[in-house]
Design goal:
About 45% of the residues lie in helices and about 15% in strands. It contains 5 helices and 10 strands. Helix 2 packs antiparallel against helix 5.
């Protein structure tokens, strides 16, 4: 009785692909995903950061002299200051921070107190409210990332596994 011919090349190729899956660099994959999510967060935060509108303001002081403010000032320093730190692994967690080192960034984010009635020459107005509400741009952006991250990571992992199985 003859059993016929069997071509094992396809099975050998499958075996090679399965072996490649064991060599998969999970550490690099997780670091890359953490960095990609930080980049998405960075873009959202930068887009939400307002740029100051500075026009030349002049006013007459009590002694009759004229004081001019912001003639050469341009906005955008807060927006330009956002940065992404490198990915760190702490236990089983990968952390990549998006920060703004400007000293007034936390006031912009969370709000701040001010003295009502005080005249601010830079804006040419008296302050009216005791509290300025924060913009919560980082807080809002973080919540958006947290809600989209599981689906994003699932898609990245699925694509990576498909690539490994298909020999890419």
């Amino acid at each position: 009785m003859k059993w016929g011919k069997v071509d094992f090349r396809q099975l050998e190729k499958l075996q090679e692909r399965i072996n490649r899956m064991y060599e998969f660099d999970r550490e690099k994959f997780c670091r890359d995903c953490a960095h990609e999510l930080a980049v998405i967060l960075y873009k959202k935060v930068v887009e939400r950061t307002d740029v100051g509108d500075y026009e030349e303001i002049s006013y007459i002081k009590k002694d009759g002299s004229v004081l001019v403010y912001n003639a050469e000032k341009q906005g955008g320093e807060l927006r330009k200051s956002w940065t992404i730190k490198s990915v760190e692994k702490q236990g089983d967690v990968y952390i990549c921070e998006v920060i703004n080192p400007k000293e007034y960034a936390s006031y912009y984010e969370y709000g701040h107190r001010q003295e009502p009635g005080r005249f601010v020459p830079q804006i040419g107005k008296k302050l009216k409210n005791a509290w300025v509400e924060g913009k919560f741009i980082l807080t809002i952006s973080e919540k958006e990332i947290q809600s989209m991250a599981p689906g994003y990571l699932e898609m990245k992992l699925k694509t990576k596994l498909e690539d490994m199985v298909n020999g890419k």
